[in-house]
Design goal:
With about 650 residues, this protein is α/β, with parallel strands linked by helices. The longest helix is centred in the first third of the chain and has 18 residues, at about 125-140.
Length: about 650
């Protein structure tokens, strides 16, 4: 149970699992089976983690067997090369991703969908198998082959997952982005991926408004020279879509694309365990997005470990994550099908028609894992909602938070206002590995501000700029010093591998450098202080931006804030931007309050040289505040890919501020 007063000896501990919950967890079941197989002692998470990094062959081999991955396994579990990125897991094994996502074929729920208007649909496992069968036949007849790219410009709907599974069944590589991307942002990504087929929506709803995509589709199709077929998946206004399609000879409606085919069993030809599954994209706020090619088996086994052992997802669970098809959490969510869990999809604004929309969904659909962003938790707190008083939420065992750092007040809000007996799992990783570097432990306590543990199978270190290991209480660079299965296969258009090596292995020899600024907590947990490429460095002292946000965003006068370091007189000074809550203004008194709060709660070096009020902050489409874009504007440099931002117009608030010139 939770206690905001803390547990004996630890004022920051907010929750701990019961003995019964620990004993029934998949993590301990996995450990008990490993103890018998390998004659080792694995009493707790730390012992399991130590074994996972000291004997990766045993750990990942056992995971392959425990989770029942279908495919031929032969040869070694792990081969290594002269460089970390040359390591390959299951180099001689085969897999078909679709076969592992479609292990059920009955009338229970596979995918349940809702949108902000209350529209609803679902696919049973039999329906999902049938839809994938029709899509597989259509794609094969059209000439899609293993290695071709299939792209989706679609909302978060069941059809998006069906297209992904059908493409993967053939060995085609799936890539997607959300429909709120503009034409330039979409083409910056998809032209690099060079898709053969595009699945596109006619539009989407957000905040109660309809946004048509058909008026952009001509430009998108013309901008993709490799495209041979475009399939329009109507959101719900097929009559209008059909009229529009008649004017485009290469466009076909979803229903017409599938109509010629009859249901039959899906075919599952074997592909290499490291055959490409996805192309994902970096946010691109500092340049054209990187196109990251992810492995089939490597990503799936990483997701299964995170789902089953770190999130305790079990067959029959109902797993939800608020995401779009343009964020890696969509890929993470889709993999829950491999655990025979029901995937819950939601499309639209999480606050429409009211701030409790997602909690209403949780009760209606008996969600067991409720996944959101740290920003969403902050927004709920700011909206003053208290689901613990208005909702049942008895099915909810786990709340996941990612996307940005969950601050102390966010932890407290969850246990005070959402649910007391719940595993709050803050986690961090990224698109780069399509998974987590640091994550949850369903058998251990939750402490305020901390991510519980290093992810299983990953040897996490925190280093100085010179590569020296840091102990708890010291901030440095988060790295992983051993290979893991979901390391990218490659970048597109990087024949020599130089860009791939430079992105992750150029900073520290033989180690994966994530680009996060972090520290060890005394408990063995991890505190993330923000992106290291946005780290402040006044007077040569490095400061994580999250430390400033934790103080400033807790003030009632402030809705949210953004901080940058600005080059000034041969040094760097800290500049703070704030969005004020209603009825407040940034006067001298509030400036003094902000500075005093930072000085007392953080340190004098956290106090900004200048504070400015703005109406909005720019953020990526996954909800992360983009300090780098603001820094570029303030310093008079071009923002090289504003299309990667969900609200690029917000950058206008940072232009021409006299005090910053």
């Amino acid at each position: 149970m939770a206690s905001l007063l803390g547990y004996a000896g630890n004022v920051n501990q907010l929750w701990e699992p019961s003995r019964e919950r620990i004993g029934n967890s998949r993590l301990m079941d996995f450990a008990k089976k490993a103890e018998h197989l390998f004659e080792i002692n694995l009493p707790d998470y730390d012992a399991i983690h130590k074994w996972s990094i000291s004997r990766p062959d045993q750990f990942w081999g056992h995971a392959h067997s425990y989770f029942g991955l279908i495919g031929e396994v032969s040869g070694q579990v792990l081969t290594t090369g002269p460089n970390l990125q040359d390591s390959v897991f299951f180099p001689d094994a085969s897999i078909n991703i679709a076969q592992n996502l479609l292990t059920k074929n009955d009338d229970t729920d596979a995918i349940v969908w809702r949108d902000e208007l209350g529209n609803a649909s679902k696919l049973t496992w039999a329906d999902l198998n049938g839809q994938v069968s029709l899509l597989q036949q259509a794609l094969l007849d059209f000439g899609v082959e293993s290695g071709d790219r299939v792209s989706a410009w679609l909302p978060n709907r069941p059809e998006t997952i069906s297209v992904m599974i059908a493409a993967a069944s053939i060995g085609a590589v799936f890539t997607s982005t959300s429909p709120d991307f503009g034409v330039k942002g979409l083409l910056d990504r998809f032209t690099q991926a060079a898709p053969k087929v595009l699945f596109a929506t006619d539009g989407y709803f957000y905040g109660g408004k309809w946004f048509s995509c058909l008026d952009k589709l001509d430009e998108v199709v013309q901008g993709l020279p490799t495209l041979e077929k475009t399939v329009v998946v109507p959101y719900g206004n097929e009559e209008y879509a059909n009229e529009k399609i008649q004017s485009g000879p290469s466009w076909i409606l979803w229903s017409d694309f599938l109509q010629p085919y009859n249901l039959k069993e899906v075919e599952f030809p074997p592909h290499g365990f490291n055959h490409p599954w996805y192309v994902l994209y970096s946010s691109g706020t500092t340049g054209k997005p990187k196109c990251i090619v992810h492995r089939s088996g490597g990503v799936l086994i990483k997701h299964l470990v995170e789902h089953g052992l770190q999130c305790d997802i079990k067959a029959g669970d109902r797993v939800f994550y608020y995401t779009t098809a343009g964020w890696m959490m969509w890929n993470w969510l889709a993999s829950a099908l491999a655990s025979q869990a029901t995937v819950i999809l939601y499309d639209g604004s999480p606050f429409h028609p009211n701030p409790t929309t997602l909690f209403d969904l949780a009760d209606e659909l008996s969600i067991t894992l409720f996944g959101v962003s740290a920003k969403y938790i902050d927004a709920c707190a700011n909206a003053g909602i208290s689901p613990i008083e208005t909702h049942d939420l008895s099915s909810m065992r786990t709340i996941c938070s990612t996307g940005s750092t969950l601050v102390d007040e966010g932890f407290d809000y969850v246990y005070r206002n959402i649910k007391t007996d719940v595993h709050l799992q803050s986690m961090s990783g990224g698109t780069d590995l399509c998974g987590c570097l640091v994550a949850g432990d369903p058998t251990g306590p939750v402490n305020r501000r901390e991510i519980q543990k290093p992810a299983l199978g990953l040897d996490i270190e925190i280093l100085t700029m010179n590569g020296e290991k840091l102990d708890h209480g010291q901030q440095g660079e988060l790295v992983c010093s051993n290979p893991f299965p979901s390391m990218p296969l490659s970048f597109l258009n990087d024949e020599t591998g130089e860009k791939y090596h430079s992105a992750y292995f150029g900073r520290y020899a033989g180690k994966w450098h994530q680009g996060d600024f972090a520290e060890w907590a005394p408990s063995g947990g991890i505190i993330i202080h923000g992106r290291s490429d946005a780290t402040l460095n006044p007077g040569g002292i490095r400061i994580g931006t999250a430390e400033i946000y934790a103080v400033v965003d807790s003030l009632p006068e402030i809705t949210e804030s953004l901080v940058i370091g600005q080059r000034w007189d041969g040094d760097e000074r800290v500049i703070l931007f704030v969005v004020l809550s209603e009825g407040n203004r940034l006067d001298d008194e509030l400036r003094k309050k902000i500075k005093s709060s930072l000085r007392v709660q953080a340190s004098p070096r956290h106090v900004p040289a200048s504070i400015h009020s703005v109406f909005d902050l720019p953020r990526t489409r996954s909800g992360k505040i983009s300090e780098l874009a603001v820094k570029a504007v303030v310093e008079g440099n071009p923002v090289r890919n504003a299309e990667a931002l969900a609200n690029p117009e917000a950058l206008n608030y940072f232009k021409g501020i006299k005090e910053l010139q």
